[in-house]
Amino acid sequence: MFIIALLCLVGIAVAQQPHPCTSPPQWEGRIFSSNEKQHDTMRGKISYDATYRRVRIIEDFEVGDDEYAFDILSLFDSGLEFVYDLKAHNCTRRPITEQWRDFGIPQNARSYGEAYIGSSSFPDAGVLITIWGGNFTIPSVNVTLSYVSTWTYKGCLPVSRTVYSDTYGNDVLSIYDVTVGISDPNVFIPRRECLTAEEYTMRQALFGTPNKKN
Ligand SMILES: *[C@@H]1O[C@H](CO)[C@@H](O)[C@H](O)[C@H]1NC(C)=O
Ligand SMILES: *[C@@H]1O[C@H](CO)[C@@H](O)[C@H](O)[C@H]1NC(C)=O
Ligand SMILES: *[C@@H]1O[C@H](CO)[C@@H](O)[C@H](O)[C@H]1NC(C)=O
Hey, what's the signal peptide range on this chain (predicted)? Predict the structure, then answer.
């Protein structure tokens, strides 16, 4: 009898263990991030494509008293990044050194349960989110960072990502107004200012139709 009761309890505990949901691989939204230690804040618009591992962010960036505006296209499968300075009107092409970081829930993440942002007391006054955390290592510098991130329970859309570290300070990123899919497929083609005339002529062939890497 006791064992059966115990098994029932274990059964309930297992049943309640949340499973990571699957985020849409492509979405767009507004982002806001800040890092107190680095004295920086960033407000921007992001187009995110986990299928072909590419991200475009148009951002206002402030560090200390300095204000910048960038249009950054990061093509992780090509290992290439185009940084257009929207104030100086010049473009820098550079290799991507950091690893791809997916906005989906990592397989090895630990559940911190679910919660309402706002309230469940009134209709439409809250958003149910699912909370996951863990840690990851940046191999190039061998630094391990802890994170806690949240996704909407319905739709599994990213809501926030907080990365804690003594080395880099705490990074808090919030995501708003998410729309699923990519509204303009050309968003992952570098700006004209970032390409040579020859590359610009061939831009669709060079950047428009990536091959899926496995
Ligand atoms: C772009 O212009 C800024 C401001 O004049 C300058 O600091 C930066 O080095 C320039 N970058 C490139 C790639 O020319
Ligand atoms: C990383 O996460 C694992 C599992 O959650 C934990 O055991 C470990 O202590 C964490 N390491 C660090 C450096 O936070
Ligand atoms: C990374 O750092 C940990 C401890 O901080 C150490 O045990 C490990 O050997 C390091 N790995 C590499 C590849 O340097």
Answer: 1-15
Question: Considering the domain boundaries, does residue 43 fall inside one?
Answer: yes
| Residue 147 CA to ligand 2 centre (angstroms) | 10
Distance CA 128, CA 90 (A): 43
pLDDT digits (tens, 9 = 90+) for 150-160: 999 999 999 99
- Rounded CA separation 192/203 (Å): 9
Atom of ligand 1 nearest to the CA of 90: 1
Structural domain contains residue 81: yes
Looking at the CA of residue 135, tell me the nearest atom of ligand 2. 1
> In this structure, is residue 115 part of a structural domain?
yes
The finding on whether 85 has its CB within 6 A of some atom of ligand 1 is yes
Q: Give bridge partners of residue 133 from the DSSP assignment.
A: 110, 148
pTM score of the predicted model: 0.86
What range defines the domain where residue 196 resides?
23-202
CATH number at residue 29: 2.50.20.30
